[in-house]
Amino acid sequence: MLKQSVELDLMFQALADPTRRALVDRMTQGPASVSDLARPFAMTLAAILQHLRVLEESGLIHTEKEGRVRVCRIEPEALRTVEDWITERRTTWERRLDRLGALLEQDDRPERQN
């Protein structure tokens, strides 16, 4: 459990930055070279590489050298881990709100008098 918690911490820290979220969004369309990923941003290639390093260290992406080009890919299993964590919390809160709604509905019903 602690290992998963540390992994989630790294993933959420990585996703906290809007530039890194934009990079992840782009990579969900398919693998991309570092230069392709950097093109839309008004920052240095070194800054993009730092963002990619954070994403890779969090486990959200994988990079590998293909010839002279470094290609970046999403790690779907890592995204699933984040999604599962969020889904568990959402489900818990939906159940709680459903129970609260049922209780409030019960309280709103007029009591029958015989």
TrEMBL record:
Location of the HTH arsR-type domain: 1-94
Please name the PROSITE patterns in this protein's record. Answer: HTH_ARSR_2
Q: Which InterPro entries match?
A: ArsR-like_HTH, HTH_ArsR_DNA-bd_dom, WH-like_DNA-bd_sf, WH_DNA-bd_sf
Matching CDD domains: HTH_ARSR
- What does the record give under GO molecular function? DNA-binding transcription factor activity
Which region is the signal sequence? none
Q: Which NCBIfam families match?
A: HTH_metalloreg
Give the protein's recorded name: Winged helix-turn-helix transcriptional regulator
- The protein's organism comes out as Leifsonia tongyongensis
